[in-house]
Design brief:
- The structure is a single chain.
- The chain has 289 residues and is an alpha/beta fold.
- The chain contains eleven helices and nine strands.
- Helix 5 packs across helix 6 and helix 6 runs parallel beside helix 8.
- The relative contact order is 0.16.
Length: 289
């Protein structure tokens, strides 16, 4: 690439909306229009997969009294709306319709069933649960996961073990926020150097590399006050050294967060020598279509 090369604005993991997600805002069409207004070449719309059972609902869904069955019906509406928006705005932006997976008993089979049923382009493979506890929703749940695992180092080890199980079951085109487990840990920079934790990180990166998956450089961490995105720099450097492809994701949860951090993430990758030549998503994301 020449010195004057300007990478395209893209997001492989984003497009949550208040229309289909209680902890997001705005209609999905408004989110899509925001991507178009910001000059995105392509964007992945990757709403959360619905829970299989009531026990796996997010805290806000439980508080709102929305059943798993109702959320499953809502997901069918989501899939239809993504298809409509893909067609309506095909002259302005390439939209990929997908979903973000979960990690609990039965979730992988259900995710693959949903992908086939609704002809979704791809899956973002994420881990939000450890020992069936949704650890990323609030500090109290994070502490509950630590307790369930027997300590914070054990939480990290369990997280990366469950992530590997997810990777093997789904082989997701994009691996979402690889080190999300660090979310409420102010000492994560030192903790990931623990040999038992780093061994698991390197093992999972090798699986990603060997299976030609992509990592999500998730910029939403900055919006939540973190000093760096997911993936943290030491892990990102290892991934790039292994030749793993990276795609930026704003993990947008409404119009106001569309494009958040994408330019900063692109600059970070360029500084590390990555080409950022992701104009054609088909070269990175192996879709159904």
């Amino acid at each position: 690439m020449g010195l004057d090369y300007v990478p395209a604005r893209v997001s492989a993991h984003g497009g949550h909306s208040g229309q289909f997600c209680l902890h997001a805002e705005d209609e999905l069409e408004a989110v899509v229009l925001a991507y178009i207004a910001q000059g995105f070449v392509w964007a992945g719309i990757t709403e959360h997969m619905p829970p299989m059972q009531d026990q796996y609902r997010y805290a806000d869904e439980k508080e709102a009294g929305i059943s798993a069955l109702a959320l499953q019906k809502q997901f069918a509406t989501y899939a239809a709306e993504v298809k409509r928006l893909k067609q309506r705005y095909s002259g302005d932006i390439l939209l990929l319709g997908g979903m973000e997976s979960e990690c609990y008993p039965g979730a992988f089979e259900f995710a693959l069933e949903l992908q086939q049923r609704y002809a979704l382009d791809y899956i973002v493979g994420s881990v939000h649960h450890v020992r069936e506890i949704n650890f990323d929703f609030c500090p109290a749940q994070y502490q509950a996961a630590i307790t369930a695992c027997g300590g914070i180092d054990a939480l990290y080890c369990t997280y990366f073990d469950e992530q590997l199980t997810m990777l093997q079951a789904l082989r997701p085109a994009v691996v979402g926020h690889f080190d999300l487990v660090r979310l409420y840990d102010p000492d994560y920079a030192q903790r990931i150097l623990n040999p038992e934790i780093m061994r698991r990180i390197e093992r999972n990166l090798k699986y990603v590399c060997d299976n030609n998956l992509c990592l999500d450089l998730n910029m939403r961490a900055l919006a939540k006050g973190a000093s760096e995105p997911y993936i943290s720099r030491p892990i990102l450097v290892k991934a790039l050294e292994m030749g793993i492809n990276i795609l930026p994701g704003d993990d947008s949860h409404g119009v106001s967060s569309v494009g958040y951090g994408i330019d900063a993430g692109t600059a970070l990758l360029q500084d590390l020598g990555y080409a950022c030549a992701w104009d054609n998503p088909g070269a990175f994301i192996h879709t159904r279509t």
